[in-house]
Amino acid sequence: MKSLDNDAHPSSEEQAIAPQLGAEGSPSQAPTTVRFNLRSFMRGDLGFIPVILTLALITIYFQVTTSGVFLQARNLSNLTQQIVVISILSVAAVLVLLLGEIDLSLAAVAQACAAIMAVVSVYQNWNPWLAILLGLVAGAVIGLINGFFVAVLRVPSFIVTLAGSIGYAGFLLLVMGRQTTLIVRDDTIRSLAPTFLAPWLGWVIPFLLVGLYGLGVWYERKRRSQAGLPLRSSLQTAIQLGCVLAITVIVVYLFQSYQGVPQAVLISLGLVVIFWLLLRKTTFGRHLYAVGGNAEAARRAGINVVGMKLTVFVMASTLAALAGIMLTSRSTAVATQVSSTLLLNAIAAAVIGGVSLFGGRGSVWAVVLGALVIGSLDNGLDLLNQDQSIKSMVQGGVLLLAVTADALVRRSGLRTGR
Known about the structure:
Strand content: under 5%
Radius of gyration: 22 Å
Shape: globular
Number of domains: 1
Largest sheet: 2 strands, parallel
Strand order of the largest sheet: 1-3
């Protein structure tokens, strides 16, 4: 049996066996410690070797060609704020992809729900938080509709969400009426994305997120020990947590040296941590991976496949609504034109990060790395004053190279039995 920690996803066999062993409290064998080696460490939750190398090469290239501007605190702050919407939408895409489905309506849902929020805020003078809540509820309802057709009526998700993308784009036009652009003037809504946290909050909240991550690692180690499964060495765990802490300190320091930690960045990172805990540390997450790996086997094992699909589509569309709200806050307006690249970038970020298009494999941390790759390319090429044609071709090439490299690494791992 392979280690849960040594892959970005648990196998269906481990999902079924590990909880049973833990519940009995009498594992068949004492837990063993896996010796530290660089390869096993890099294959953990944060271990996306091809993507990390790609991101490093992109960073070095733009740092040199922009004469050091790329890694300046001001530019890094702008870069991270630019990828917030893609990151949130990509979390939604990851959930659906892990299920073995696809949602092509996410971008249209994002802008339609943002339009609902904007209309009731501007024309009806609603309380901003009620307007935001209405937008999120609208996203949940849309997700329930998508999920009903996919899970209950068993219509292919590609067809359902493609039709939804067209329909929700029409709904966006209906909501907006004759307006092609609606400017949102409420200060609360406008402050969601561009606000910077106070210096002390900028240090406290990131370290709380690191603490949540550490608790998740400790919980999984405890669960594996109770189940009699192999454990990472203490050194490997310490290096993993130390790297996360060091990266956090460096990034927060850079933010604080400019204007502070952007609130929107913490919102997106908070979502990543929350969904990482949900997917890796709960029964819901194990069931999601099981359904994505083999829906029929999951059904025979007693998992409510229909309920899982409904839940995931509701969560995905709600996250899409949140992404639309953050986009509106950053741009201070809602447009009737659905972005042609928003959905593609969100799915590309997930795939670049190692999430399988066929379900059951991947980690929500893919969002961070994938979005950074896409955002770095956009930002760096902008600094070099390149046209959109060049940016699109480069993004396509990097996406293909990253996925190809990941496929080769995984194939090599299968040949060696890892």
